[in-house]
Amino acid sequence: MRLKTLSFTRISLITMLMCSQVAFAQQADGPALRSDNIDEVLNAMTTEEKCALLVGGAGIVPDVPNVAGYTRTIPRLGIPMTALSDGPAGLRIDPTREGTSQTFYCTGFPIGTLIASSWDPAMVEVMTQAMGSEVLEYGVDVLLAPGMNIHRNPLCGRNFEYLSEDPLLSGRIAAAYVRGVQSKGVGCSVKHFAANNQETNRLENDARISERALREIYLKNFEIAVKEGRPWTVMSSYNKLNGEYTQQSHRLLTTILRDDWGFDGLVMTDWGCKDSTVKSAKAGNDLMMPGFQRERDRLMAAVESGELTQAELDRNVRRVLEYIVKTPHYRKYPYSNQPDLKAHAQVARKAAEESIVLLRNEHGTLPLKGGEKVALYGINSVDFLGVGTGSGFVHMAHVANMQEALTTAGFSLDEDLANYYRHCYALQQDKERMEASSTDKRHRSEPEVSVKAIERQAKANDVAIIVLGRIAGEGADRVVHDDFELTAIERELIQNVSLVYHKADKRVVVVLNIVGVVETASWKGLVDAIILPWTPGQEGAHAVADIIKGKVNPSGKLPMTFPVNYMDSPSAGNFPYRWDMSGRRGTRRNVDFTEYEEGIWVGYRHFQTRGVEVSYPFGYGLSYTTFDYGQPKVKANQEGFTATITVTNTGKVPGREVVELYVSAPSGGLEKPDRELKAFAKTKTLMPGESETLTLTVTTYEMASFNESTAAWETAAGTYKLLFGASATDIRRTVSFKMKKAIGF
Ligand code: GLC
User: Fold this and answer.
1) Which atom, in ligand 1's list, is nearest to the CA of 202?
2) Could you tell me whether strands 266-268 and 233-236 are parallel, antiparallel, or unpaired per DSSP bridges?
3) Which of 144, 193, 389 to mutate to test the pocket of ligand 1 (most atoms within 8 A of CB)?
4) d(CA 605, CA 662)
5) Of these residues, 270, 383, 477, 528, which one is catalytic?
6) Is 6 within the bounds of a domain?
7) pLDDT tens track for 276-294
8) Residue of the nearest CA to atom 11 in ligand 1?
9) Would you state the pLDDT for residue 705?
10) Each residue's pLDDT tens digit, 80-92
11) pLDDT higher than threshold 50 for residue 60
């Protein structure tokens, strides 16, 4: 504990806290914990010590103030505290501490949705290695990430932390995320297990899901992440699943997670306290976070009464001890509190460059030549959003905005216009300070720009760039009006700028600095180019500027569908439009319970199979170059198939291409989507004329569908069509093979 630098109050608080750490003897008078004597330590523990270890704490860990939570120490057995903290876009700890002028800012990396847009697990693993070393050097043991609930609906307030509407893409990116972080000797916590797909009434909402949809969609990504990432921990979710809190579901936490999938780590709750602690412990939820005295009391009483058997108690305690011996705190790692933030900033920038999606680029508008005079519109050109809010937020020392990024990239801004937006932003900040309220949870109010002014700016500048922003975070879902849909002022700005600039034969570029899907169909035809960086971390604005300048050729692709209208979403009718808590508790549809009536028909599985037009399809993204897909070859057997396909850069600039392999299963038997993503691969950077042969392997288990009547996975016999696509709708090559006989799992 670093007492010298802490103020008296902190010291007394910490001392009090340590003493309140269940009054365990301080001197070692039992076996000191090692990775090879866990059973011996377990046998030496009192019941009180065991129950204490199953309940965490929140707040001040002596040497890392204000982490999200910690596990308790038992000094006499050499059991240290361990520190757990958020979040998916980077470590979230307080940036300042009493008693020292040193700061503890963390790197704001691209959000989950953006790194999923890279379709590049190898890149994600490199990015999260940097994230893991930051967690290590700041003295934290577990990063409470990745968030990976399926994008069931565009309005979920935490979609920015999550990855995709498709379980394979989500699972593969999450597994790479875990491997990268954990390669640095710290842990991850894949969350929120499971079916936490809305924020409205998240603590109590009952997600009612068919077994097939659960297995094929909402659990499948966690299954992949657990099997291919091997996370140290899993965080159960707040909500219920088919009437039972997930943290209390033995079927979910033991039968499926451990017995079926082979998970051998620790399960912790999300940060709340349900009444039936004992049911959670019995179900296999090992650690109660953030942890309350009443939970320890309940466990003690349950052991006393036999409701919680000694075997169940010891099973959970053993898993906590097996976790502790892996941690840097246990290893007494001499963390520096000096992570290489400069290097990590560059890693964050590179990750954004590899992930940003180019949605539209008419008349070769982008890349610009460089040096152009730019009229930069939109309040978020100044208040450029690096990450979302809530536990997914990161305390960053600086978030680059589009004004500085375009200037750094060598463009010259219309200074009057830039000043105007800086002034409006400052006024809004003053107002927020005075009202001590933050802006509308969803977006800043967009300042008006008169047509006269736009006409003047169109004369004085070469190109217009409009930045539109959306913000959201845990605890609330988004809404349709003025959130999913553009506001009137945003619409007017796009219309007026497009009209005036096109009259002057000049181009208009839109940058979507957003945390979730927005409506695009009604206005995208008005503008020449659209770039989607989502909220790309602290350096993301520079990545956007480098794409605009052509220094980077965009290679991101959408990890979810952009519908034409919100109501086209398959879950539109079964999602809370707004936080409507009226009505009798327990009876409120989409608040107390949410019917996943769409079943497996999530995202492109719905839109593609039912022929519903979309604004931008799953897997869509443009490049500054073009690619040819050669004739694929496939070798299949009863284990699965391996396909190879050669991709050639047929354009004029270097670039990378994501090849998406969809499988169309034989008809008959279970009703299936007309195509499902079963593999994908991203080329290296191909020079003009250069080719690369990609190999994509899929097992027969990965091809299987879940049959509810037999409660088993099955891969039907018949002819399978392999669709090699640049998106879910842009299929370039197909090849088929026959599975001679059905296989069950
Ligand atoms: C929050 C979030 C979870 C986070 C935890 C600790 O309620 O649901 O994602 O990791 O609390 O901050």
Assistant:
1) 8
2) parallel
3) 144
4) 11
5) 270
6) no
7) 999 999 999 999 999 999 9
8) 271
9) 98
10) 999 999 999 999 9
11) yes
Same domain, 123 and 215: yes
Q: Do 489 and 444 form a contact (C-beta atoms < 8 A)? A: no
Calculate the alpha carbon distances from 615 to 468, 522, 560, 570 in Å: 18, 9, 11, 15
Tell me if 337 is assigned to some domain. Answer: no
In angstroms, the CA 514 to CA 498 distance is 21
Task: Tell me the C-alpha distance between 652 and 424, whole Å.
Answer: 42
* CATH number for the domain harbouring residue 437: 3.40.50.1700
Q: Is 440 a catalytic site residue?
A: no
Query: Are 632 and 719 in the same domain?
Result: yes
Residue 185 and residue 42 share a domain: yes
Identify the residues whose C-beta falls under 6 Å from ligand 1: 68, 86, 144, 191, 270-271, 391, 474
Whole-number percent of the chain with pLDDT over 90: 90
Domain final position from 531, 552, 573: 552
Task: Name the residue type at position 738.
Answer: K
Instruction: Give the mean pLDDT of 703-711.
Output: 97
pLDDT tens-digit series, residues 721-743: 999 999 999 999 999 999 999 99
Are both 378 and 308 inside the same structural domain?
A: no
Q: In the block, which residue shows the tokens 């957003």?
A: 514
Q: What tens digit of pLDDT does each residue of 134-173 get?
A: 999 999 999 999 999 999 999 999 999 999 999 999 999 9
Say if residue 370 is in the same domain as residue 325: no
Question: Do the Cβ atoms of 256 and 43 come closer than 8 Å?
Answer: no
Length of the chain: 745
pLDDT at 580 over 90: no
| Residue that is last in its domain, among 552, 575, 591 | 552
Residues 316 and 448 in one domain: no
Same domain, 271 and 386: no
Query: How is 586-624 classified by DSSP, letter by letter?
Result: T--BTTTEEE-TTTT--THHHHHHTT--EEE-TT--B-S
Residue 4: predicted pLDDT: 37
Q: Which runs of consecutive H residues, i.e. helices, occur in 552-698?
A: 604-609
Lowest mean pLDDT among 82-96, 396-410, 524-538, 566-580: 566-580
Query: Any bridge partners for residue 84, and if so which?
Result: 69, 142
* Domain residue limits at 646: 625-744
| Closest listed residue to residue 530, CA positions, set 546, 542, 543, 547 | 547
Ligand 1 pocket mutation, candidates 86, 149, 236, criterion most atoms within 8 A of CB: 86
Residue 574 contacts residue 594 (beta carbons within 8 Å): yes
Q: What is the CATH number of the domain that holds 637?
A: 2.60.40.10
Asked if 145 and 293 touch (Cβ cutoff 8 Å), the reply is: no
Q: Average pLDDT for residues 62-90, to the nearest whole number?
A: 91
Strands (E), 277-436: 357-361, 373-377, 412-413
The enclosing domain of 326 has a CATH number of: 3.20.20.300
> Are the C-beta atoms of residues 535 and 385 closer than 8 Å to each other?
yes
Pairwise pLDDT comparison (234 vs 14), residue with the higher score: 234
Does some domain include residue 613? no
Domain count for the chain, please give it. 3
Residue 434: pLDDT band (50, 70, 90) is confident
- Asked if residue 3 is part of any domain, the answer here is no
What's the pLDDT score for residue 439?
A: 52
The pLDDT score that the predictor gives to residue 402 is 98
361 and 327 within one domain:
no
**Contact between residue 633 and residue 644 where contact means Cβ atoms under 8 Å apart:** yes
Tens of pLDDT along 581-599?
A: 788 888 999 999 999 999 9
